[in-house]
Please model this.
Amino acid sequence: AKYAIPTAGYRAFTEYAEALDYVASRPLPAVLKYDGLAAGKGVVIAETQEEADAALKDMLLDDKFGEGKVVVEDFLTGPEFSFMCFVSGRKVWPMALAQDHKRAFDGDKGPNTGGMGAYSPLPFVTAEDERYALEKILQPAADAMVAEGCPFEGVLYGGLMKTPQGIKVIEFNARFGDPETEVVLPRLKSDIVDIFCAVADGADTRLEWHDFATLGVVLASKGYPGSYEKGHQIKGLDRVGSAVYHMGTKADGGRILTAGGRVLFVVGKGATLAEARANALKDVAQIGCDNLFYRTDIGHWAFEK
Ligand code: GLY
Model:
């Protein structure tokens, strides 16, 4: 807010009654975020005033997660996308855009996960949107960190949303995104070591990108993101032509076994996103394991909108 970076309207509260009055003055749903650790239960999207009341009582009257403050944010709608930039002080080099898929099942249904797939580029984000996001969000964030006396060097990840009121930032991370990076970096034509050196030295560099598209599908253990079994054998990896990232596997003699929630990430390439998706799904079908599931609709925003 201090640097006028577009984000959801919000206010922070430590007093229950004030927070409740503020919620009543804003359109529903309200997003209530406890500022602190809350075992994954610290964000509530309240559809009604009663739900907001109950959540604010938990967070501010009964101190269910400890004493703390609550940020009340306006609820935003629209597709989310990830805009990662290499940053060195005021220098910002944008990467190709990507979109993650957080929900476990097709149709964006089911619980949130660490990411079930990603793709790049994004047809629903125009060149003008991208310029706006760079000029109004990522560049001002880098400049703000310089102005605050803590210049940033590294990868600044903007989690953005294309809302009917324009592009807004939902979150920043000071790292590469996963699984976005696995679909973005294969499209990078420039030498990444030159880029890392430029970031470290504050020197000049240029990023060039391939035109091809990438689309990746995560194979996860059945039950993930809840409890799941490990130790199931994975077969057929030698038949896969696409890149396969091992997210949670283990070698056992000559065998590869599942060893995590998200197990494999198969990234297809193609002249178009449709071709990249067909290649990824063709290769996913080569992989044999009796305890894996995956989404078949990765990239649906690109294909349907
Ligand atoms: N894919 C989301 C993240 O890396 O935070």
Residues 100, 115, 173, 177-178, 180 surround glycine (CB under 6 Å). The chain has a mean pLDDT of 96. The longest helix spans residues 127-147.
